[in-house]
Amino acid sequence: MDFYAVWPALLCLLTVLLVASSPLMRLADAPPTTTLRRVQTIDGLRGFLALGVFLHHSAMYHVYLLTGKWDLTPSLFYTNIGKGAVSIFFMITGYLFWSKIIFSLGNVDFLKLYIGRVFRIFPLYLLLAIFVCVFVGIMTGWRLQVSPSTLVLGVTRWLTGGILLAGDVNGHADTFIISAGVTWSLQFEWFFYASLFVTAHFARNSTSRFLFPIAAFFGAALVTVLHPTSMKASAAAMFSIGMIAALSKSSGTLRKFSAPQWALSSLIIILICLVLFFSNRIYGIESIILLGLAFLLVIFDGTIFGLLLTRGARRLGDISYGIYLLQGPVLFVVFWPAVIRAGSMSSPWFHWAVVMIAALLLTALSTAAHVVIEKPGVQLGQQLAAKVHRMRRISGANSANQEGI
């Protein structure tokens, strides 16, 4: 078997989808959040995106075992399936939060928004940080290999929820491999959340509300063309496409261009396959545009022949943050035994069989984390935000009364 054949990835996706559709996954039925004007196709899409990143890193693990270096595979498909998934994740973020901005006409309760983000991201992220620190402790024999201050600094960076890029802990080289390096994308997410405090002002005017996302996209696209290695510009273009999708959805711009479901689904598949199999620069503007068009079709009810609306897909979407964030520790543990590493290096069949087991373990772990950590964390954030809102109202009322005296 060609190690980089596509069918092992498809088989893995199908198996996880079937398991997610079974009664075993009933705990994942309730979504962790209730988003404004929820789009069901996005819920179904998230899980496949997270699994795409998992398959990307599963293939990279083979390179890592062979060479000792965390590097991309020679396969366009296994390289692009992960990077393309992150691109669409950024578009989803742009869509969801710009939808909130548009709906409120730019008058968002930012304190509530940021409290919600902290309690959505940090609880599960702290579990990842614990996994990383424990595994580093085991790998270093629980012996201090750096100065106490350096150790504290290294651990602290892992506790910032992705705001700061995490580095090595206790001198253990390439600590990031324990997390499969997934935390880098959170820094871009935090930057986007922070930018909303400024960009929301553009949503208060009907003209700027329309022009800003478009101008932001073309500005980011220009920088991407001039500086092809600028991930900041590429991410800005992705967020902007999500914002344009939110604008189009709220205004009903594309409703008159309705098409049969089979046509929408077929076009989505074609656009995604063009990127996965033929793009040599996944974060280049051409790939971003193609994925952006596919995302726009999903927003306007492209279901990929009903796949995105299945119960299994929606359940995977609900636990997608756990699938994305916890895949590193699962892969690290599964490939830890020497006999597993040897088998993986000697046989593609063996490697992908191990990946299948890892995928099922990751799904189970993410489901448990969703119930025990994610949902309680979100609920706690909602309660805190409501309490802060009440205190602000009381404070405002007292100030008004004092001014009236």
Number of strands: 0
Order of helices and strands: HHHHHHHHHHHHHH
**In which range does the helix fraction lie?**
over 70%
Mean pLDDT: 92
Count of distinct structural domains: 1
Report the radius of gyration as a whole number of Å.
Answer: 22 Å
Number of helices: 14
The separation of the N and C termini measures 83 Å
What is the beta-strand fraction?
under 5%
Quickly list its features.
405 residues, single chain, globular, mainly alpha
Give a topology summary.
Elements: H1 7-21, H2 40-67, H3 76-103, H4 110-139, H5 148-158, H6 184-199, H7 206-226, H8 231-251, H9 261-278, H10 285-299, H11 311-318, H12 320-334, H13 338-346, H14 348-404
Helix pairs in contact: 1-11, 1-14, 2-3, 2-11, 2-12, 2-14, 3-6, 3-8, 3-9, 3-10, 4-12, 4-14, 7-8, 8-10, 9-10, 12-14, 13-14
Q: How does this structure look, described?
A:
The protein is mainly α. It has one domain (7-399). It has helices at residues 7-21, 40-67, 76-103, 110-139, 148-158, 184-199, 206-226, 231-251, 261-278, 285-299, 311-318, 320-334, 338-346, 348-404. 72% of the residues lie in helices and 0% in strands.
A few lines on this structure:
The protein is an all-alpha fold and 405 residues long.
